[in-house]
Amino acid sequence: MLTVTGAVVVGGAGNTNRTGIITFASGSTLIANSVQLGNSNTTPAAGTIDMTAGGTLQTGVLSVGTAGGTWTPGAGSVVMTANNTLPSSVFSSFNNFRVTAGATTTSQGLTIGGNLVVGNAATLNAAANAALTVNGTTTIGGGTSGTFNITAYNSSPVLKGLVTVNSGAIW
What we know:
The chain is mainly β and 171 residues long. Helix content is 0%, strand content 47%. The strands form four sheets. The chain has an eight-stranded parallel beta sheet with strand order 1-3-5-7-10-13-16-19, with no helix packed on it. A four-stranded parallel beta sheet has the order 8-11-14-17, with no helix packed on it. Strands 9-12-15-18 form a four-stranded parallel beta sheet, with no helix packed on it. It is globular and about 50 Å long.
């Protein structure tokens, strides 16, 4: 497990060849206040986050710098821990996606290949008029609270697995 008390920027600055790569191993965990894919400083370089083998990325904020980069959700899990809005590019698919604190708002369609969990005292706000697909189970709340908002939706979300709305949770 690696814990970073500040920001993680995947990709350097000053030369576009200073690319950054984070490759997760099965069972590995990265915890950071924020994670930015690609740099935004002078002459930014792109970044790569690869979760093909699994692992867990726990962060308050996911963002995309001007250099952008490549996101591979693979078999990994992403855990959001603070108020944030997912960027309108790159982070549109996840394997397992959990919101454990604060409110996470999507700004584009979202595909979750595995399971979606919105925990107690957490909120997931789905983007208006954007596709939402969950191939695994969907769990809202852990028994005391949790909110999953789908507003101004132009079609029904596709929730392929078991949907559990626990006591105290709001759908």
